[in-house]
Amino acid sequence: MSKSERMHPGVWALAVTAFAIGVAEFIVVGVLPAIADDLGVTVATAGSLVGLYALALAVGTPILVIAAGRIPRKALLFALVSVFLAGNLISAFASSYEILLAGRILTAVAHGSFFAIGATVAARLSPPGQASRAIAAMFAGLTLAMVIGVPMGSLIGNELGWRLPFFGVVALAAVGLLAIALWVPKQPREADVSAAQQLKALKTLPVLVMMSITILGFGASFAAFTFITPILTDETGFSSGTASLLLIVFGVATLVGNLMGGRWAAHYGWARTLRIMLAGVAVVMVAMALGMSNQYVMVPLLFAWGVLAFGMSPGFQTGMLETAERWSPKAVAFTSALNISAFNLGITLGEHSGSALVEQGLIVLTPWAGLALAALAQLPLFWLAARHRRSGTVNNPAMASA
User: Fold this and answer.
1) Is 161 helix (H, G, I), strand (E, B) or coil?
2) Could you give the CA distance from residue 181 to residue 185 in angstroms, rounded to a whole number?
3) Which residues of 173-201 are buried (b: 16+ CB within 10 A; e: fewer)?
4) Same structural domain, 227 and 370
5) pTM of the model
6) 281 and 135 part of one domain
7) Which of 70, 237, 354, 397 is the most buried (most CB within 10 A)?
């Protein structure tokens, strides 16, 4: 690997912290019954720890990024990880549902802001034209958490108590703090920009269009993925144990896709990469809808699905950074935060689309909902890519660095 392609160690420091954040975000799902039993609430009430986490992340992230706009980037990252650590410590010692929820909300806001700021820092630490690869490396920590951290944390939490995984996240966050202190160089603070100037990004059409691409494109997979376990067991006929193993296969595919998606976006440009991968997701959704009852079809489809669905993440974030640099240069970090919110709004949109079908007993139709969202995402992508082409800033990998 040439020196120009070598990843800056600061990017790996961000990836270490992203791994801890990924475990913290998804671990509740694996120990939900244990939490409900211990705190004396229903499983449905405990389940709101997931939904309210996403809501706090989507709403709180842009607000915090604006409020912290004048803090130097390295110091801000260090502060965010410290808040994340504190939130998980509160969760680990929580004696009631309300205290646990408070810890989760604190964790969520730090989570979203870390990725918003971290993406801009990773892009700055990358060689010219390699921003998408650096962002993918950071997001790889998140996807790796799905493959290793969450299954291991769930196993430990269900055997030895649900609090133990939260203490594990605290330890991982401490490692992240050390890595940031050692490997992330000092970053200049953003130019003094008022909150009003940053909020103008919400009136910038290309920024809003890029958000819609992320919401529709990322959300396309969650209409079916939210219900993937009952699909695999009730419709495809796998045992629950086999379904769990297949989810690990899906998790490995998301890691592969994230890393490959970063390379493709750096080589081909984020717009072209997203266009092709969205088409791929659409094909997978059709194949899944038609072959849902065939076990031999579903296994390779799950892998292809994971590669495509999460392989788009670097392209979404790189596309927002490039769009912000072109049309909202005074609010790059804020628009990055908006796109982190868009990822979570996409999850919500996909889940609601799938839930509406499942409530009618139509779980077999959830892939068609995903197909519709993936197809719709192509429309704003076509418009935004055309705008970039007219300005000379798209499909040119050299422009991928922020």
Assistant:
1) coil
2) 8
3) beebbebbeebbeebeebeebeeeebebb
4) yes
5) 0.78
6) no
7) 354
Mean pLDDT of each 10-residue bin along the chain, 402 residues long: 70 93 81 86 77 85 86 93 97 96 94 90 86 86 81 81 94 95 82 75 93 96 84 88 81 89 91 97 97 94 94 93 90 88 87 84 93 98 94 53 35
pLDDT (0 to 100) of residue 130? 83
Token pair 């691409």: residue: 213
Give the span between the Cα atoms of 55 and 239, in whole angstroms.
Answer: 33
Question: How many CA within 13 A on the CB side of residue 22?
Answer: 24
Write out the two tokens for 108: 């969520």
Instruction: Give me the number of domains the chain comprises.
Output: 2
The single-letter DSSP state of residue 6 is S
2 three-state secondary structure: coil
- Alpha-carbon distance of 392 to 298, in angstroms, equals 42
Helices 73-93, 9-30: inter-axial angle, 10-degree rounding: 20
Encode 178-217 in three state secondary structure.
HHHHHHCCCCCCCCCCCHHHHHHHHHCHHHHHHHHHHHHH
Q: Cβ of 268: how many Cβ atoms within 10 Å?
A: 17
Quick check: is 98 in a domain?
A: yes
Token pair for residue 170? Answer: 């605290």
Report d(CA 370, CA 388) in Å as an integer.
27
- Contact assessment for residue 27 and residue 169, using Cβ atoms and an 8 Å cutoff: yes
DSSP H helix total and E strand total for the chain: 18, 0
**Cβ proximity of 367 and 286 under 8 Å:** yes
| 144, part of any domain | yes
What are the CA-CA distances from residue 30 to residues 26, 62, 226, 232 (Å)? Answer: 7, 29, 14, 18
Residue 342 structural domain? 193-402
Map tokens 């796109």 to a residue. Answer: 339
3-state secondary structure labels for all residues of 228-256: HHHHHHHHCCCCHHHHHHHHHHHHHHHHH
Helix, strand, coil percentages for the chain (3-state, nearest 5): 85, 0, 15
